[in-house]
Target: ABC transporter substrate-binding protein
Amino acid sequence: MTLCVCLLMMGVSAAGEGSVPGDLDGDMIVSAGELEAAKGSLERGDLTDEELDLIKRIHEEYPRTVVDFSGKEVTIYRPVERVVCTASQHIESLRSLRVPTKTIVGIPEGANMEAYFAEFASVPSIGHFYEADVEKILELQPDLIIAHPGPGPGGNSLEELLGRMRGSGVPVISLNCNIPETYPDEMRALGKIFEREEEAEEFIRFYEGVLQGIAARTGSIPDEGRPKVYTEWKPSNTNSILDMGAVEMAGGVHIFAGGRPVREVDSEAVMVSDPDVIIRLVWDRDYDAIASDDISSFTDATSEILGRPELAGVKAVKEGRVYAMASPFWTYLPGSSCRHFMGVAYMAKWFYPDLFEDLDPQAIHQRYLTQFQGLDYDLEERGAFVYPPPA
Model:
């Protein structure tokens, strides 16, 4: 019995080192017999009520297994009290699930400097997601690492980095958390891991309600009735593979859809395609930090497009349907976030102002910030994201 007590206590004291409180035989699971042993230890004064409650919780609720973005099964054997996030959208997703701020002990470089994540200003940085410092991560003694699956800049694979993380002995779950097609499943996985299943379903109802509400109205519109859209993230540079999904969800057709990923674009190709709408993505500022009427970046971007002589005959330019959108509303840009569905809502409003006369993207955004992000953030005063705003 003395040996059992010692092992039980080791499980409690070394919980941050990969052991499971109450596990006596090293299988990472608290059996019914091990729970009874813990109760006996409580009676002898060798455990506290709080320690027994944790052991009972682990017995009843763990292990928990989910499948990540890469298709790998990830098993968690005890409550996650310390997590490292390698991408800012991981932080945002956990905030939507109301995971306590103190649980996040490591964040990607730059996130602690963004106004949107002000409460994490003192949390250590672990480097960029595509070159995270594994040694720094391990120094933080996480119970879980949420890793971005890649690719990094230029399409570089993160397999080597992910392999080093997985070889550390710390559970690793690989998630994007900013791709519309997979985001609900990723939120369910996080909800299960963090015992926030109800919060996950509440958020998914809101998220899918926005996107499905848009799809319900645009679904019957034939391709020939949909606006042709050109997007660019800097002059004459686009990425059709990453951009066309959001454009299509809003009811448009990307002019470079179906081809290879396009980086630099020949202006003549845009002229020949004659888009109905042009959207310039801007990402040079902290758009959550600026005043709501600070639109200089947007007007500069749209004016530059409207002033290109080679585009003067393009329908979007002639009709003034040239818009600018900030990176937090997109899926893959510096400063991108989980708010991509707000970008879809704004595009739907731009594409079909009559069809979506009753759609209020700013109200959707405000609800998201208040209800799911828990932020005291008034969009009437702070934050600039689109230009010109839909009528």
Observations:
- Residues 2-62 form one domain.
- The chain has 14 helices and eleven strands.
